[in-house]
Every structure is written in structure tokens, then in C-alpha cells.
Amino acid sequence: MxxxxxxxxxxxxxxxxxxxxxxxxxxxxxxxGYDGIEIGxxxxxxxxxxxxxxxxxxVLGHLKQHNLEVSAMLPAPGGxxxxxxxxxxxxxxxxxxxxxxxxxxxxxxxxxxTVIWVAGWAAFxxxxxxxxxxxLEGLQDxxxxxxxxxxxxxxxxxxxxxxLIETADDALMLAEETRxxxxxxxxxxxxxxxxxxxxxxxxxxxxxxxxxxxxxxNDRLPPGQGVGNFDAVLKALKEIDYKGYLSMEVGFHTRxxxxxxxxxxxxxxxRSKL
Amino acid sequence: MxxxxxxxxxxxxxxxxxxxxxxxxxxxxxxxGYDGIEIGxxxxxxxxxxxxxxxxxxVLGHLKQHNLEVSAMLPAPGGxxxxxxxxxxxxxxxxxxxxxxxxxxxxxxxxxxTVIWVAGWAAFxxxxxxxxxxxLEGLQDxxxxxxxxxxxxxxxxxxxxxxLIETADDALMLAEETRxxxxxxxxxxxxxxxxxxxxxxxxxxxxxxxxxxxxxxNDRLPPGQGVGNFDAVLKALKEIDYKGYLSMEVGFHTRxxxxxxxxxxxxxxxRSKL
Amino acid sequence: MxxxxxxxxxxxxxxxxxxxxxxxxxxxxxxxGYDGIEIGxxxxxxxxxxxxxxxxxxVLGHLKQHNLEVSAMLPAPGGxxxxxxxxxxxxxxxxxxxxxxxxxxxxxxxxxxTVIWVAGWAAFxxxxxxxxxxxLEGLQDxxxxxxxxxxxxxxxxxxxxxxLIETADDALMLAEETRxxxxxxxxxxxxxxxxxxxxxxxxxxxxxxxxxxxxxxNDRLPPGQGVGNFDAVLKALKEIDYKGYLSMEVGFHTRxxxxxxxxxxxxxxxRSKL
Amino acid sequence: MxxxxxxxxxxxxxxxxxxxxxxxxxxxxxxxGYDGIEIGxxxxxxxxxxxxxxxxxxVLGHLKQHNLEVSAMLPAPGGxxxxxxxxxxxxxxxxxxxxxxxxxxxxxxxxxxTVIWVAGWAAFxxxxxxxxxxxLEGLQDxxxxxxxxxxxxxxxxxxxxxxLIETADDALMLAEETRxxxxxxxxxxxxxxxxxxxxxxxxxxxxxxxxxxxxxxNDRLPPGQGVGNFDAVLKALKEIDYKGYLSMEVGFHTRxxxxxxxxxxxxxxxRSKL
Lengths: 274, 274, 274, 274
Hints:
homotetramer; alpha/beta; globular
């Protein structure tokens, strides 16, 4: 298993500060011993429209120089343009698919194997079924695009934030309905805890479809700082012979966060367990 | 003084849920007796790129039908594209100016007199002076564009979220430096309370430059539910003969919010005071 | 709208104490002005196997004498026999269906129009789909039995306790898949609040399929004692012209409850609103 | 002394989730090094009516395979059928005795030496004396049935949940009044702490009648995670030369529990002390 760190807490999403240039984040994570970086696709790090070809090569150079892989890329839902794949607005759905394709292409350029599908949410007046069908349609479209570039899309249950894909089974069902082989699933220990569920259960349920993992304790704390049972999660991952990334997604909910503390505390804990 | 309600808590920004179509919000606010609606420019309500001319006319029709004015329009910083006017990225600054102009044009179409200038924030590596200059430059550009359409831009101190325009004087200085007559200022009682300052002081300081007011108690509660001294704020506003809007910006920080409770509780409190 | 009170807090479920004989509860609720009583089907109140024909008539007599209707009957899941309709054990499913039919017959004898379908939960190793199908099969069987007796079954989303029927849409879909006209839906304001959702949204979503309502504030407090927006719920119910029961399901989670306080406080609040 | 773990937290009682099949629980507890498993007699684990002869043999096979003894069996009071031995309802008392006999026979088949007598509670309208007599009568009946099968019944004081057998002396008196040699007593450190009593006092008071022990810290935490003085309890048990089981009964009060964390943390603590 490899360890990566998601950049939200170092970025301007969702809170505006603190915010660090991507080079600084790459350098710091590498110096702490991370194998990978999971890049959130918001400005100033990676909003595709703002990245020239020159800039993309420059970032790749930094990554290579610091021997840091991009473990996954993650769009930023909920801001101005929404990028809600299950929006009732056809304009929003169209932009969302375009944006995901931009992210997929960017992932390809940065040699990143995985893009996370945040499946969206049903606003008042949109039925769960409609929202599901919109998300499925967008996911299929993006999956076909991603396949040619060798990218896997992973569906993540996000019950703390949304109301569409809330459980391991929801994610598995949506992935399966695409009938595309490059659509898999992931889970986030934080979201499992939000549901008062047992995170290790997700490992056993998702098993051979599990392609990525977000690690976070309750309240978006580093693992080991809250109530999560990470011994059980790691044991389960070993049992299913998981070879992918453990990607920390912590601390980004509050301006009070010191990103380096979150990153260092997280990797210290995980290295002591692996 | 007129009373309006900001739509964030009814929208997908910054938290994704709850989220209601704009028509529903217009109908509900009007039925509670609001004079105006302050429209947050995020999807699904008002991301300009998603609004066809037909849709824009339809929304205006709803507003007229319910006799509701648009008190102000407010861009949504911090999401994927950032729209931070003081970003170190020239691509982001360019998009931000373009986006503000789109919002200004939309405000014009919806007969709204005011657009709020969220001046931005200085990320790590950007000096306060650089950030100030970037924001000033963007604001001047937008102000000239707005002038022809009869729109006023108002600079808001947002210390709780940012690190650039934090005080009444910061806002007044930035506005003044534009040397554009249609740039004025506003304040938000929540941000004043965040700085442990006296909200009514802002009224006296901003006086004839004061063009818009955000009302919120601490913790984004409706006025009267927290510790804010709104008697003093209203007294000060009467003393300076303020004729603009009191616009509630409450409840949007948490998925747990029941938007109607926030809207009803806020107007009940203010009507009892005015 | 009529007002009833669920007996859990007066019974031995789920906590053992306090516990009052059914006669006492009938007398007390009637004296407080309740229109109806919602009877939880656990001992000592209404475990069908313990109720002789003589006893059933005696209870009906008490109800008539105090002019109290039985608004609904509610099985007690989770105890020794489980009565989980979506259990992986065929023995448990068979007993559950038999037990629901016993409850339906008892409802008929007590002139109660409604029995609540608690759809169950998926234990580790049971997929969501399997659990759904088991629950659907049981519900169809019971619905046919109930139809001849003029009883309506209502599906309730119970996200706080389970993982199968969690949303308004889940309940509507399960009900619809039965293709039986006497299967409708209900919701509980407590469960909506647990999901950080807006309770009045459930009214608009369920609309003409809404056949019963559980009223409870957060933490199973009486309405008005917590954060729930019951003005909005009542307004929505009037708008859809709801004619059914508002049934309090409060206070049963703790031995510390004084049942009469819960019952009196609840009806005082509702009477002041209706 | 041997260590076992009670299955409630892995079962659907009293909260519905999480819930694991009995095989999974047997495997996990054995892998953590437990000597025994205390089986709660609720579905899906061990509601006797649902267990065919084939299934009973299968479970025994699993136990043998993992070298795990059944330390005790524990009925599940408070659910639909109540199984309150001191109920005012003769139907409930009759079913309760029948159910205890079913559990005793099941204990015999699974080579378990001990069944716990939860003595019941006095509902409103039942005097303590009546309740005592009902419980005594049921206990005597069951004790005679158990004697032939070599099973010991143990009376447990449960003050946190009930109002009948609350102290060491209550339990000793009830046991003595049966005049049956296979009726002994036990205590639970959690219930002692609930009464603000010293758990080790129970050891000295019960002494040679002490046949089983429940270990739990306050709030149903694993021992060592709360305020309980387990050094004193273990010292007292050594002094009286206790040879029975220390059986963890923890974490079952909340859906938020991760059962493996409770089991692992508990045995780690006790192994470090023994």
C-alpha cells in the first residue's frame, strides 16, 4: 500500500485560507515521505482552464523531481459552477461532463491513474431516481473518454455532504450499471463514520472493486486522533490484498487548520502501523 | 430601510444541501413579506454561463409576479475556479473579471442596483500589497463596466474568511483608490462580531459611503438569536438616514439549516424592530 | 389533522422502564385531549401472542370509553426475535411476516386503519439489494393480507436506526414496487433531522402518498423543545390538505423520561399551532 | 481466569446495527485470542425458535474449529415479547419460562455451562414484592430444568436497567430463596459503577457464590478506557481464587460502535493485567 495526501487543506477549497502554491505542497509532502499526492482540482492548484500546456509540464517536472506520484485527482463540487452531475439543469450537467473530461485529460498528462467521481446530489424537486440517472449518464460518458487514456473512475459514497450515493452498495450499484470496466469504487473512512458505520466493513463489501481509499478520522482529523479503528481497516485491506493508495483527506473543513500538522501527523501514524 | 434575504442557505453553496430551485425561493421569501432577494451567483440559482436569455426573462417574470426586488448580487468565491480577484494566477484574475462582468450584466437584466465585490485573499507567497493591487485593478475594470449599466459595486470587509479587506477602513480605502463614483462599501454584522468589534461603529465610520448591509448574528444565526446588538445597529442606521437594504446572510454554513426557519425568524425579528 | 401519541415511552421498549399498563396510558392520553393513540406492539401493551380475545375486547372497551382512536400500530423491531423483514435468515423472515399479520389483525380488531412497515436493515454480508428484495416480498405478502381487512401499510424511512429505507424516495420506491394500492408512506421529523434534512421537504415530496406522520424534535424531544421547524411542517401539511394523524413518537430512548411530561408538552405545543 | 466477549455489540440487540453473522463473530474473537464467547440470545445469532438442529450443529462445529468455548448465554429482555420474568401478565411469564428453557437447552447443546437470569422489572402497578415472587417462581422452574442438563443459572443485579435485583445482596437473596444448588450469582462492573459503588466489593460479598463476571467500564467502554478500578477487581478475584470467566459486555448501547475495537481494546487491556 502507498500513502498519499489530498491537497484540499493546502488549497482554497472549500475555505479560502490557508492556501499554498502547488510547488510548495509538492515539496513539503515529498519531504515528509509521502509516495503520492492527490490533487484537488480547484484554483490555485488545478482548475484545468487556468493551466497552460507549459504550466502542466512544469508541474509534472516538479512531481518527477520530488519523486511524487499523483495518486488521484478530485473535482471540487459545490462552488459557483456546481459541477453536480445530477443537477436538474442540463447546462450544469453538460459543463460537468466537459469539466470531468478536462480533469481526466489532466490526470493523463500528470500520469495519474485515477479520477474520483463525486456522483452529485438531488436538490429539492429532483427525485432520487432522476438524479441517479443523470449521474449514471454522465459517468458513462466520462468513463468511455477515460478508457482510451487508461484512467479509472472511482465512485465515492459521500453521505456527509450529499444524498445520492451514500453507501458501499450505492457506489457498487452505480459503478455496475455503467457496464464499463474502468469504473470502480472507493470509500472514505470519514463518511463511513458519519453514517455510524464500521469502516472496515466497506473493505470487505467492496473487495475486488475497491480501487482507492480516503483516510480520515472523525471531524476530518488525522487518523489516530479521533475514534476511527484504523487497525481494523488496515487488517481488512491486507486480507483483501489491496495494493492501491491510502490517501489522507483531512483538515480542509476549517481555516484553523495547519496543513503541515495534518500531513505530518497522518503519515507518522500510518507509517507506525504499516 | 428595506429587508432582503440572501439565497446561499437555499442554494448549493458552500454546502451542497439543502438546495431549492430559484422559483421556490422567490415564492417563499415573497410570502414571508421580504422586499428583496439577494441572489448568490452559484448554480443552480445564478451561475451566469448556465442562464439562457429565455431563462433570464423567466426569472425576471417570477420576481415581478411576486413583487420581489433583487437587492444585490453576490459572486461565490472559493469554489473550483476560485474567482479570487487577488490571485497570483493571471488566468484566475482574468476569469474573475470576466465573471464579475457577467454578474454585473445579469444584475442589470434583473433590475438589481448592486453587486458585491469580494476583494479576495492573499495566498502563501503573495504579499498583501500585491494582492491589494490585483484586487484594485480588477475592481476598477469592473466598476467602469458597471457604471454604464447603472450598477454600484460595494466592497465588503470579510475578515472571517479572508486576509485582505478586513476592516471598515480597508474597504473605504480600496473603494476610494478606484476613484470611481459607483464604488461604495458595505459591512456584515457577522464579520464585525468575528473581529470582536462593535457593529454599529461600522455604520458611523462608513456613513455616506454605506450602500448595503449584511445582517447576521454570530454563528450565522438569524439576528436576535445570538449576541449581536441590533438595536444599536438600527439606531445608527436611522441616524445616518440609511435608505438601503438590510440583507440577511444567515445559515448557509451548515447542511443542518432549515432555510425557512432562518428566513422567517430573521424577518420576524427585524419587523418587530422597525 | 388529528393528534395521537405513540406508547413507546409508556412501555418496556426499548428501555425497560418506565412502563405502564395500557389502560393507564389510554386514560392519561385521553385526559390530555389526544384524539388518538399509536400503539407499539411490544409487551406489556400489545404483543399479539399474549392477548386473548377477551383481553382484546377489554382494550377496545377502554378505548371507546375514553373516546380514543388507535391511529396506527407499530411493530417493535430489534428485540430477541428481531422481526427484521430483510433478515438473511428465512426463519426470521417467516416469523416477521406472521407477526405483521398478527399485528394487522389486531389493528383490525381495534378499529385502527394503519400499520407501520419498518422495512428492516442489511446486516454484514447481506447486500442492500437482497435486503430490499426480502423486505419487498414481505411487504407484498402483508399488504394483500391487510387489504381484505381495510388496513393501509405505511413505509417509514428510519435512517437513524437502519440502512435500507433512509429517504423519502426510498420509501416511495419500495411502496410503489409492491403495486398494492393499500401501501403508502409516512415520515418522522426526527429521522429527517437526523439526516440533516428539512422535514417539510418530506411533505412536499410524499404529497398524496403521505398517510401518517411521526412528530418528534431532535433527540426525541417533544416538538418545540429542540431545533425542528414545525411551523414549516404544519404549513406544508395544510398546503397538501393532509387529513391524517400527527403522531408523537418521543422520549422512548431513555429511562430518564417522564412520559406524561413528553405527552403534555407535545400536545400543548401542537394545539397552540393548529 | 478465562476471558470471553459478549456478542451484543456484534448483533442486532438492542440497536439494530452493526450486526454480523455468528460465524464472523466466532472467527474474529478467536483470532484476537479470546477463550470464550458469551452468546446473546437474539436474532440473528441465537433466537432459539429460528435455529434448526442442523444449524445448531453447524454453530457447534464453528466453535470447535476455532477452539472457542461458550462462556454463558444471555436472553434479550425488553424487546417485543418482553421476556420479563416478573411481568404482571401471566402470558408473558409463561412465555418467558418457556423461552429460558429453550435457551438452557441450547446452552446444553453448545456445551455452555452457564445461563444468565435477568430477573426482570416491576412495571407501574406491580409491587416489588409481587415482581420478586414472579421472578423467583420462574427461576425455580427453570433451575430444576437446568439441573438435569448440568447448567448453572446466575442472577445478575441490573440496576442501570431495572428496579428489582439491584444489589449484590438482592441477587444473593433471590438465588438463596430458590433453594436450588445450581443457582448462583454474578455481577457486572458497569452496573456497580452505575450505583456509584466499588466493583471489587461485589467480589468479596458474593465470594463462593460468584460464578460469572461481566467486565465493562462506565458508559459501556472497554475496561481501562473509563474510570473503573480494574486492578482492584482482579486483585479481589485472585484473592477469592475465582476460576470462572471474565466476560466483556461493552459497546452495545450505540450504533456508533466498531465492535472489533471494543473486543481488541478489551482483551489487550486484560491480557496486560493478567
